[in-house]
Amino acid sequence: MNKQLIIKYTLLLSFSGLTMQSWAQQRGEVQDQEFIIRKDRVLTLPTQPRNFERIPVLPTPKSNLNFNYKVEPFFLSLPPLEIKPEAAQKSFPRNLEELYPGFAKLGFGNYKSPLVELRYNNWEEGDYNFGVKVKHEGFYTGPIGGVNSAENHTSVGLNGTLFRDYFELYGKVDYARDAFNFYGYDPDNELLTDFITSENIFNTIKVKAGISNLEKMSELNYDANIGVRLFNDSFSAVENEFLINGKADFWFSEYMKTEVNGTLSLTNPADELYRDINRNYFKIQPNVVYRKGGLNLSAGANIIFENDITDNKKADFHVYPAFNASYMIQDGFGVYAGYEGDVLRKTYYDFVMENPFLGPSEQLLNTTQNFLAKAGIKGVINGEFSYEAGVAVGQYANMHFFTSDPTDTLKFNLVYDSDTRLINYNAKVNWEYQDWYKLTGAVNYYQYTLSDLQAAFHRPEWELTLGNTFKPTGKLLIHANANLMGGIVAFNPGIEGTTVLPAILDLHIKADYKITDRFSVFAVGNNLLNQRNQRFLNYPVRGIQGIGGLTVKF
After folding, report:
1. How far apart are CA 366 and CA 416, in angstroms?
2. Which residues does UniProt assign to the signal peptide (predicted)?
């Protein structure tokens, strides 16, 4: 073994010398080399013990230092990139109705009834639009005594909207003139052969301006407006109202939001029996709404201040709870329930719009809704037929009714009941078959329990409405509606007792036929069964009444 090692080392040194000699010769240097080989020298190496133990794993060093990186901003003065959009060259079809912002309707019918209506809306400007409307409809003869029962209605309106980046400013001005005759007399009475009825003309001016956000799907939405209403009639009734309305809602998440509605109404009515009255009303409604899946919940309160003076009133300040809930148990079936108290604002204008034959009033009162509890079911069948049915139970103070004036039976008085219990059973349906037929219907039954009055004078016991819309062709549209009402009890001064008026049945049909894109004709028929319907005692409505005409777009 030692000899083999000596030979290996000798050969290694020999090759190394040759290599170094060759490298030196390449550099141009020649040297003589002498090698001495000693055969008697022995090389020995010590024995190394074998290690069977594993090398221990050293712990990973950890640093206690924190490294903070500071980012320095660098700004470059570069001009913004300019994007120049260009309109597409493709020609898109445009709806022809957009070419006609205005239309005129002209018609005439029996009872000497002209109809003129003009409307124009300008929406072509990018940041604003406006609209103008004028309408006159008259019935210069009526069901009793010809001109003695005439009436006519005229209205003029202007509205506009100014759009900004994030909100819109809107406003409108309206004027209405409504003329009625007190014709509730007996024309067969020989003493009234030459009787001439007195005419009452209502003049109403409304001005309104407001602001609203444009993006209705944003987290915060708002709408606030201020308005003035001026009203007077041909006698001594005058009522001016200053009104502020506002509402806002904020969405916390996709399912929950909070909302607040507020109303301020200041009126100073005057009539033959009162002057210098200030009726103030302020209401704020905070509410929280939660909607997810088929569940819809809302909880809040109605906080009201009003200064009406009544014997059965405890305070001017009221706080009532307001809860509403609905839940769709299945895709086509659900339930709903609610409970709410409130003070319902009532002005002289509201009363006279409900009964235009109202005489001088002694007192104007709001209706206090101590509570209204409701529950019912609703659903959809086959995606076409929807229905709803329920019952509502309420208790009210100072609910208003109408009775004939004993000293002047042509006019009506306002009367109030201090404690009224009302049960209302209701149902409604809606069916839409494809795109050519639609049915709507509603039925209500009312059960009153009164504390001061004999009956719920001139309020119906039941109501039924049916609406049908047919579109057999693209040019023909037909509406056929029926309104039924019954169980109306009136106070009859002639017998000093109550009278139940005959049931009201009014069948109404309207048809529109499109000749061209600009021209169409229409026909309207009212009270087609020629009923002597009386909504108010001694005031039958017109019999069969029809009107036809032409509509032109421009």
Report:
1. 10
2. 1-24
Q: How far is CA 80 from CA 76, 84, 486, 518, in A?
A: 11, 13, 73, 49
Name 425's Cβ contacts closer than 8 Å, sequence gap at least 6.
390, 391, 444, 445, 447
b/e map of 175-189 (b: 16 or more CB within 10 Å)? ebebbbbbbbbeeee
Listed in sequence order, the residues at least 6 apart from 362 whose beta carbon sits closer than 8 Å to its beta carbon are: 273, 274, 413, 414
From 554, 546, 453, 451, select the one nearest 508 (Cα to Cα).
Answer: 546
Where do the domains of the chain lie?
142-553
Is the CB of residue 277 less than 8 Å from the CB of residue 307? Answer: no
Coil, strand or helix at 459: coil
Say how far apart CA 243 and CA 264 lie, in whole Å. 6
Which stretches of the chain drop beneath a pLDDT of 50?
Answer: 1-3, 5-30, 49-97
Core vs surface per residue 369-382: b (16+ CB within 10 A) or e: bbebebebebbbee
pLDDT of residue 169: 97
State residue 203's pLDDT score. 98
CA nearest neighbour of 183 among 457, 409, 495: 409
> Is-contact 524 548, C-beta < 8 A?
yes
Nearest to 323 by CA among 301, 342, 343, 308: 301
CA nearest to 158, candidates 122, 124, 127, 126: 122
Look-up of token digits 């309408």: 135
The helix/strand/coil state of 220 is strand
The CA distances from residue 482 to 356, 372, 504, 519, 548, in Å, are 23, 29, 10, 28, 20
476: part of which helix (H) or strand (E)? Answer: strand 476-486
Structure tokens at 16: 């190394």
* DSSP secondary structure of 299-347: EEEEEEEE----TT---SEEEEEEEEEEEEEETTEEEEEEEEEEEE---
Q: Which amino acid is at 426?
A: N
Give pLDDT tens digits for 376-418.
999 999 889 999 999 999 999 999 999 999 999 999 999 999 9
**Which top CATH class is 142-553?**
mainly beta
Task: Say how far apart CA 322 and CA 341 lie, in whole Å.
Answer: 7
Q: Which residues, in sequence order, are bridge partners of residue 117?
A: 105, 135
Task: Let me know if 149 is exposed, middle or buried by CB neighbors in 10 A (0-12, 13-18, 19+).
Answer: buried
